[in-house]
C-alpha cells in the first residue's frame, strides 16, 4: 500500500518540478513566458512537436494530488474499518464486525 503513496506523491512532485523548470522557456518554445498560459500549437513551425503548456502542468498537478489524497483517504478508512472499528471480545475470542451483524471466530481450534 505504501508504494502507491510514494508513486502518486513522486509523480506530482516531478510534474511540479518540471513545470517550474520549464515555465519560462524551453528549446522549442523560447518565448514561453511572453505567450502566457495558453499558446497555439505550431507543429512543424516549432520543430515538429507541440510543447506542453503551463495549464497542462497545473491540470496534471491537480490530477495527481487528487489521486494521492484519494489513495490516502481510502487507505485511512479501510484501516479504520478493519482494525479500529471492529470490536474484539477477549473472553470469547471473537471479533465482531463493524455493523454488529456478523460474529467471526478467530479461535480455529474450537467451534463457534
TrEMBL record:
<dbReference type="GO" id="GO:0009522">
    <property type="term" value="C:photosystem I"/>
</dbReference>
<keyword id="KW-0472">Membrane</keyword>
<dbReference type="InterPro" id="IPR036408">
    <property type="entry name" value="PSI_PsaA/B_sf"/>
</dbReference>
<dbReference type="GO" id="GO:0051539">
    <property type="term" value="F:4 iron, 4 sulfur cluster binding"/>
</dbReference>
<keyword id="KW-0812">Transmembrane</keyword>
<keyword id="KW-0813">Transport</keyword>
<keyword id="KW-0148">Chlorophyll</keyword>
<dbReference type="InterPro" id="IPR001280">
    <property type="entry name" value="PSI_PsaA/B"/>
</dbReference>
<dbReference type="GO" id="GO:0009535">
    <property type="term" value="C:chloroplast thylakoid membrane"/>
</dbReference>
<dbReference type="GO" id="GO:0016168">
    <property type="term" value="F:chlorophyll binding"/>
</dbReference>
<dbReference type="InterPro" id="IPR020586">
    <property type="entry name" value="PSI_PsaA/B_CS"/>
</dbReference>
<keyword id="KW-0602">Photosynthesis</keyword>
<keyword id="KW-0408">Iron</keyword>
<dbReference type="Pfam" id="PF00223">
    <property type="entry name" value="PsaA_PsaB"/>
</dbReference>
<feature type="transmembrane region" description="Helical">
    <location>
        <begin position="58"/>
        <end position="78"/>
    </location>
</feature>
<dbReference type="GO" id="GO:0016491">
    <property type="term" value="F:oxidoreductase activity"/>
</dbReference>
<comment type="subunit">
    <text>The PsaA/B heterodimer binds the P700 chlorophyll special pair and subsequent electron acceptors. PSI consists of a core antenna complex that captures photons, and an electron transfer chain that converts photonic excitation into a charge separation. The eukaryotic PSI reaction center is composed of at least 11 subunits.</text>
</comment>
<keyword id="KW-0460">Magnesium</keyword>
<keyword id="KW-1133">Transmembrane helix</keyword>
<protein>
    <recommendedName>
        <fullName>photosystem I</fullName>
        <ecNumber>1.97.1.12</ecNumber>
    </recommendedName>
</protein>
<keyword id="KW-0411">Iron-sulfur</keyword>
<keyword id="KW-0249">Electron transport</keyword>
<keyword id="KW-0157">Chromophore</keyword>
<keyword id="KW-0004">4Fe-4S</keyword>
<comment type="similarity">
    <text>Belongs to the PsaA/PsaB family.</text>
</comment>
<keyword id="KW-0603">Photosystem I</keyword>
<keyword id="KW-0479">Metal-binding</keyword>
<dbReference type="GO" id="GO:0046872">
    <property type="term" value="F:metal ion binding"/>
</dbReference>
<keyword id="KW-0560">Oxidoreductase</keyword>
<dbReference type="GO" id="GO:0015979">
    <property type="term" value="P:photosynthesis"/>
</dbReference>
Amino acid at each position: 500500500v505504501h508504494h502507491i503513496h510514494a508513486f502518486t506523491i513522486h509523480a506530482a512532485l516531478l510534474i511540479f518540478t518540471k513545470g517550474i523548470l520549464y515555465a519560462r522557456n524551453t528549446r522549442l518554445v523560447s518565448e514561453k513566458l511572453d505567450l502566457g498560459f495558453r499558446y497555439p500549437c505550431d507543429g512543424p513551425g516549432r520543430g515538429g512537436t507541440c510543447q506542453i503548456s503551463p495549464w497542462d502542468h497545473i491540470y496534471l498537478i491537480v490530477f495527481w494530488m487528487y489521486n494521492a489524497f484519494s489513495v490516502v483517504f481510502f487507505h485511512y478508512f479501510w484501516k479504520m474499518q478493519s482494525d479500529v472499528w471492529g470490536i474484539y471480545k477477549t473472553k470469547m475470542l471473537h471479533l465482531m464486525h463493524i455493523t454488529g451483524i456478523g460474529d467471526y471466530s478467530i479461535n480455529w481450534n474450537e467451534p463457534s
